[in-house]
Structure formats: C-alpha cells, structure tokens
Amino acid sequence: MDRSGADFEHAVDTMHQRLAARTVSIQHPIGKEDVFIGVIDFLEEKAIIWLEETQGAKFEVFDVAKLWDAAFLASRPDVVAALKASPIDQAFYQEHRNKAIERIAEHDDVLMDKYLNEQEITPAELRVSLRRSTIALNLVPVLAGSAFKHKGIQPLLDAVVDFLPSPLDVPPVEGTTSDDKVELRHASDDEPFAALAFKIMSDPFVGVVTFIRVYSGVLSAGSYVFNSTKDKRERIGRLLRMHANKREEIDAIHAGDIAAVVGLKFTTTGDTLCDEEKPSYWKILIPRACNFRGDRAKNQGGSGKAGSGHAKAGAGRSYVPRALGSRYRPDVDLRHGRVASGNHCGPHDA
Questions:
Q1: CB of 140 closer than 8 Å to CB of 23
Q2: How many angstroms separate the CA atoms of 273 and 263, rounded?
Q3: Residue pair 44/124 in contact by the 8 Å Cβ criterion
C-alpha cells in the first residue's frame, strides 16, 4: 500500500475480474502511498497503527471509534493525514464492515440468521466461519500491508494461522506405487514417509539445499530415503528449519512440516522422496506440464554464459512430461520461429 498509485479497492476489483475470486475484505488500509500508516480490522473493530521509526516491529491497537474522536485526532496529525488520503469516515466504515459480515454470513446459515435478525456476531464466530469458507474455497480473505516497511505483517501471519488449512484440513495426497496402483498418504507420523521436493536453492554457507514438504511419516537427519522419481537412494545429511535471516538445525521433521535438506545428490524439483523400507515405492501424482519454453542467446558470445546458467538452474527447472520422451525437441521449432506441434498448450519464444 505504500507504492505510488496504490489503490486497495481497485486491487480487490481486479481479483474479481481477472481471477474470479470470491473475496472478502477483512481489513481496509488507513492512508496510502507515503501516508499509509495502518489498517482497520473489520472483524475485531480495531484500528492498527504501525510506528514508523520501528520499521513495523511495533504497533498500537485501539478501538476504531477513536478515528472519529476530535480530541484524539487533534493529537495525531499522522492519522489525520492518512484519513484524508483515503477518505474514511464513520459511514464508510460501517458500510464496508457490513459488506464483510454479510459476505461471510452468506456461507453460514447460523450467522445469516443472526445477521438478518440484527443479533450480535462475535469476532470469534466470524473467524470460525471464515476459516470454513476459506478451506472450502468459497471465500478469499483480503488484507492490506506494505512489505517494504513491514506494515501489516503480524495480522497477515495471524490470518495464515486463523484461516488457511492445516495439513489435517486437506484431503490425503494421492500417489502411485511401482505397480501403478493409486495409494493415499494421510498427514500422520504413523504412515510411511513421503515428501515432495519443491525447490532447490544454493546457500553460500551450506551449499545446495533442497526444500521438501512432508506429507506423511517422519524423517530423521542421517537417515536414508528413496527417490522414486530418479530410482536413487539418497542420504539425508542435515535438516534445517529456514527462517528469514537464519537457519536452525533440527533432528527430525514430521508430517505437515516444511524443511530444507542438505546432502541430496540426485533430487531435483518435483521429485518424490519415500520410505526405502516399503516394498512398493510410492510416487506423488504431479500434473503434466502444458508449456514449453526455448531460450537462446542474442549473440555467439552469450551462448557460453547461457549454457552455464542453464546448467546451474537445471536442478530446479519445471517438471517436463516424460511422455514426450527425448525424441521431441520443442526448442527446435522455436529456434526456427514455428509453432511447435505436439501435446502441449503452447510454446513461448524467449
């Protein structure tokens, strides 16, 4: 919201038009651009103001009614300037809060009955109902903030916990065994280990690390797993819990966890790691890729750099369908300016 030309309501409208998202704004920014200072929380009926000098680390919370209190505004020129930048008065607040409550109540018969009978709906009831609707993909909560100055980060993290599904809230993941039988993995430590490698990153201190998401079972540092995509046995050197500016070494990860693994030699993006003790190796079902991309250097001198860059990024490239095999080269068509034929959605010339 601190960017030049920031427009919260336009951004929400764009989500409707381009993504067909059924949004519900549970916050509204106080100010915009260089005078963005905080947000109004419609669920809690509170105003949250971040202290500029703390870079988002500290904030104050007070009843939203103080925004219309003349005595309070006389002592807070920053709030006055923000309210002028994004015209918010008591009528505006009440209208948008009613819209948010009505949108949430549309998917909850109990809340709708209370809303129509003008009974009080508590913030806890709204959060529980919104969580159910979010998990069912009926609603998408929308919040406001600024990543540059860290404003709005704390409520965003709270919303992740309050509304997004935990591993127990989503259906079990499907996979196939070595004999092509579909098998489910539930989010439980008691089931055989299964994980998906979703990102490869080079760390200047520990080398190449592989981010994995554990769907079932437990993985311990120093143990062995089987890469069912590459048909390779891998040793887990170290397990790291990655933070924004540090890493923490841990002994084990459990179902639902995300962690970084050090020491994998063959694993690349999209590979399945499973329990090597299990007789039938299991592989997560990954959707087939529908796009191909061909990259070429602008001149002869840049071809060497392009090749080395592709070699470094190769471990983290997108999944490519095996069905096409090594005989089909979509980049051949791209180099000659033709539209490649075959089982794909469409090539993109680089």
A1: yes
A2: 14
A3: no
Structural tokens at position 214:
């554990």
pTM of the model as a whole? 0.71
Residue 233: CB atoms within 10 A of its CB come to: 12
Residue ranges in 119-265 assigned as alpha helix (H): 123-135, 153-163
For 241, the enclosing helix (H) or strand (E) is strand 238-242
Residues 115, 102: contact at Cβ < 8 Å?
A: yes
Q: Are 290 and 319 contacting, i.e. CB atoms less than 8 angstroms apart?
A: no
Predicted confidence pLDDT, tens digits, the chain (350 residues): 988 889 999 999 999 999 999 999 999 999 999 999 999 999 999 999 999 888 888 999 999 999 999 999 999 999 999 998 888 899 999 999 999 999 999 999 999 999 999 999 999 999 999 999 999 999 999 999 998 889 999 999 999 999 999 888 888 888 888 778 888 889 999 999 999 999 999 888 888 999 999 999 999 999 999 998 898 999 999 999 998 788 999 999 999 999 999 999 999 998 999 988 764 466 776 666 555 566 666 766 655 565 555 555 555 544 433 333 333 333 333 333 333 434 434 333 33
Burial of residue 225, with CB atoms counted within 10 A of its CB: 0-12 exposed, 13-18 middle, 19 or more buried: buried
Task: Read off the tokens for 143.
Answer: 């919040």
Q: How many CB atoms are closer than 10 A to CB 148?
A: 11
